[in-house]
Amino acid sequence: MILLELIIATLLGIMVGTLSGLTPGIHINMISLLVLALSSLLVQTFGIHLITMGVFIIAMGVVHTFLDAIPSIFLGAPNENTILGVLPGHRYLLRGNGLMAVKLFTLGSFFGLIAAVVLFPILIFITTISYKWFEPFFAIILIAVSLFMLWNDQKKWWAAFVFMLAGIFGMIVFNLNMKDPLFPMLSGLFGSATLIISLNENNTIPTQNDDTQLKLDKKKTLLAIIAGNMSAFIVSTFPGLSGSIAALISMQVVRDLKDHGFMILMGVIGTAGFVLSLVALYSVDKARNGAVIVIAQLMTVDIWTVIVFLCVALIAGGIAVVLSLWFGRIFAKIISRINYRMLVYSIIGFVTLMVFLMTSWIGLLVLITSTAIGIIPGIVKVQRTQAMACLIVPIILYLI
Amino acid sequence: MEDKTLLILAISSASVGVIALCILMFTNHIPEKTADNITAADIGKKVAITGVIERVRTTNKMTIVTIAHQCAIDAVVFDKINISAGSSVRVEGVVQEYRGKRELITDSMTINSTARKK
Question: Do B41 and A298 touch (CB under 8 A)?
């Protein structure tokens, strides 16, 4: 009986994860909190097991990390894990290779998931013995990554200016005491700003190629999977870090991944980061993302529960590959028939509306300011990753 | 990589997940707990507790064994049993609430080590 309940929960999770992944601005944390709010009703009235709710959250989370590539590639509307994928994703789209970008991302997500499941026992062991030892060094690693990013930029002074501006802005936003500050801030810096710049460049989206046979450099693909998993492990174990910071760390370690490798890396980090956040929950009792916090509040996670969750992640991941390629094809077919300008205006309008509904006037102010800051790197031609300082600076200050 | 290869891998992964899940469900898992991490969510569920016996009370029909880890919980056995404080045991049973206190209705008790006699 419980098996049937778990299978139904997995299928429901896959459906909800598909919807949340494809819709910009809908975060799995919101849905997980809704599950928590309904949990006592579900247990008392319908006799649903707590583990069933956990299974729903895991299936939803895994599928979401596969499908959130699609809006960030085709619509330029990212979340905190996919922001760095917007620009290369957009390049693929403008060359008619949007579907190829989706496929690379899906490939990364899938192999990231498999690697995360395989590495899970070893990572539990490593976390249990090294967590306390490693914790004090994390701020130093982030400072080193930031300096390295600045040093590698062609225009160092402009890069430092954007870094400082974004850093100060991030600190202000986190102190505004607003609900969900990341959504307006990141949508502006990396979403709306990219779209507005692309309007200026008078883009039209070409007909998308249907043939996506990939010739992958095996060594680079493997490197992207390993580096992605390692950095996903770090960010899912330590506080306050998102998938994009994992990508930044990986990019400094494994240079010259090129666009193909980078898209794979983004996929690896999103999915592996979500699955590996269960390592920290099980071994050091720390919940590092909203969905896992809800799981921790719902139940005591023992090794049996973890294995059930990993099985569900494999099922959801397998189905998500099919869904992701299918929706990718649909988006690729539709996108070239749409007027690009109209599309950009409607996405910016939609994101603005979501920001207003979720965070009210103050969120709107954050969105406008962050869009303005996000346009600067595009105009002065420095790397957009410098704007990640909006997350890095507050985290460094929190850690030291 | 061809789409077909990726799809075959994806379907294999989902199948492995389903098979492993079925096997897990048929292993009839009982969550391992200690006296201090039994929560309201466990009420009505079967759990296993390992700990040291702090106190034993015997009445006509039953034995109440208090098992401690950091907190203590009573394990109720509807039988007279001969066991002494200080023994380490593993008890399987269903968590219930009785007069505002959580207790375990024992199904089985395994003695890991008996109390040392002074």
Answer: yes
Q: Are B21 and A300 inside 8 Å of each other by CB?
A: no
Q: Give CA separation, A76 vs A65, A91, A101, B103, in Å.
A: 16, 11, 13, 56
Residues sharing a CB contact under 8 Å with residue B65, sequence separation 6 or more, in sequence order: B53, B55, B56, B74, B75, B77, B83, B89, B91, B106, B109
- Across A241-245, B4-8, B28-32, which has the greatest mean pLDDT? B4-8
From the list B7, B32, B37, the residue facing A322 with the nearest CB is B7
Unique residue bearing structure tokens 């929560």? B39
**Ordered DSSP codes for B16-35:** HHHHHHHHHHHT----EE-G
Q: CA-to-CA distance for A346 and A344, rounded, in angstroms?
A: 5
Report yes or no: A291 and A57 within 8 Å, Cβ to Cβ.
yes
Cβ atoms of A301 and A295 within 8 Å: the answer is yes
pLDDT at position B118: 43
Note whether B10 contacts A308, CB cutoff 8 Å. Answer: no
Q: Which long-range contacts does A154-158 make (Cβ < 8 Å, 24+ apart)? A: A154/A381, A154/A382, A155/A380, A155/A381, A155/A382, A158/A380, A158/A382
Element (H, E) at B105: strand B101-113
Element (H, E) at A131: helix A98-134
Domain limits, chain B:
1-30, 32-113
- What is the pLDDT, as a whole number, of residue A203? 64
Instruction: Write down the ipTM of this complex.
Output: 0.72
The pLDDT-based confidence of A310 (bands split at 50, 70, 90) is very high
DSSP A327-389: HHHHHHHHHTTS-HHHHHHHHHHHHHHHHHHHHHHHHHHHHHHHHHHHHHHHHHT--GGGGGH
At which residue do the structure tokens 């680079």 appear?
A220
The pair of structure tokens assigned to A208 is 């998308």
Which of B2, B29, B41 comes nearest A304 by C-beta? B29
Is B17's CB within 8 Å of A214's CB?
Answer: no
- Residue A216: both structure tokens together: 């992958």
For residue A286, the 8-state DSSP code is -
User: Domain locations in chain A?
Assistant: 2-399
- Domain range B32-113, CATH architecture: Beta Barrel (2.40)
H or E stretch covering A282: helix A258-284
pLDDT tens digits, residue range A163-219?
999 999 999 998 888 877 877 888 888 778 877 877 776 567 777 777 666 677 778
- Residue A225 near residue A264, CB atoms below 8 Å: yes
CA distance A388 to B107: 57
B64 by DSSP, 3-state: which? Answer: strand
Mutate to test the interface with A, among B3, B4, B6, B45 (most CBs of A within 10 A): B6
Which residues on B lie below 8 Å from A298 (Cβ)?
Answer: 41
The closest CB to that of A107, out of B6, B12, B20, belongs to B6
B21 and chain A in contact, CB less than 8 A: yes
